[in-house]
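Morning. Coffee machine broken again, so started the prediction first thing and wrote up yesterday's gels while waiting. Chain of 143 residues, entered below exactly as on the submission form.
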Amino acid sequence: MSAAEALKIAESKNLDLVKIAPAAKPPVCKIMDYGKFRFEKAKREKEAKKNQKIVEIKEIRLSLNIDTHDFDTKINHARKFIGSGDKVKVSIRFRGREMAHPELGLTIMSRCAEAMADCAAVEKPAKLEGRQMLMFLAPKSSK
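Came back before lunch.
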């Protein structure tokens, strides 16, 4: 039908004529209460925003000569962070002559990845950036 006829029908029912696909031939229109439509759309978006979780990145700092109990404590903290849905950044800072032994940092990082393997997946493998070695862990997807 013509746009004028559709507009008359919409006005007689106290509703709005809304173009759904204006580029189509002929244009597709819908008769609806546009104010109510916008209100319900905003309400749905607000509800969706309320349900989404913002993922934070928590940092765990290790050292090259970390002892087993200290290591276990750091791993337990990382487990708590992963359990709450956050990502974990594991870092080792090399000081002084420690820079000559990056392979020791890699062994500690791999030990950390193995310890966290049951609850976390390695998102970014260990990589030396300047004086720091970084690795990112993310919660395992529950599929």
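DSSP finds four helices and six strands in the chain. Going to sketch it on the whiteboard this afternoon.
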